[in-house]
Amino acid sequence: MELCYTRSVMRRTAFLDGEVAAMWGCRGVMLGGTGDAWLFASEGIARVPRLALRMALGEMAAFRAVFRRMTGVVFASDPRACRFIERLGGTIQPGDGPFRLYEVA
């Protein structure tokens, strides 16, 4: 998580009831056109799903203002994580293994 945070060109932390609820950001070469989004969320974020989605849509718009295309990986066996990516406009690629690549273009 520290590596993602320190290497990101954009990064944020959200608090819920005084505790860290989520950290997210985006890595990439500013003129390269493709950003790599990441998110670490606590179980507490599930208590505020609409707020989390609304914030994520705003953050994705900010990322997309810099990068034309966003990519990342999602834990394939977590249906909430996969739905979240799809609600952000992402397409999850088929594949084997615990993680799947996704793209928001």
List keywords for this structure.
single chain, 105 residues, alpha+beta, Aminopeptidase, six-stranded mixed β-sheet, 38% strand
User: Into which percent range does the helicity of residues fall?
Assistant: 25-40%
- CATH fold category name: Aminopeptidase
How are helices and strands ordered from N to C?
HEEEHEHEE
Number of strands: 6
Strand line-up of the largest beta sheet: 1-2-3-4-6-5
Largest sheet: 6 strands, mixed
Mean pLDDT: 91
Number of domains: 1
Quaternary class: single chain
Are there runs of 5+ residues with pLDDT below 50, and where? none
Structural overview:
The chain is α+β, with helices and mostly antiparallel strands and 105 residues long. It has a single domain (2-104), classed as Gcn5-related N-acetyltransferase (GNAT) (Aminopeptidase), CATH 3.40.630.30. It has 3 helices and 6 strands, in the order H-E-E-E-H-E-H-E-E. A 6-stranded mixed β-sheet has the order 1-2-3-4-6-5, with helices on one face. Strand 1 (10-16) and strand 2 form a beta hairpin. The protein is globular. The two termini are 25 Å apart. 17% of the residues are buried. The model has no long low-confidence stretch (mean pLDDT 91).
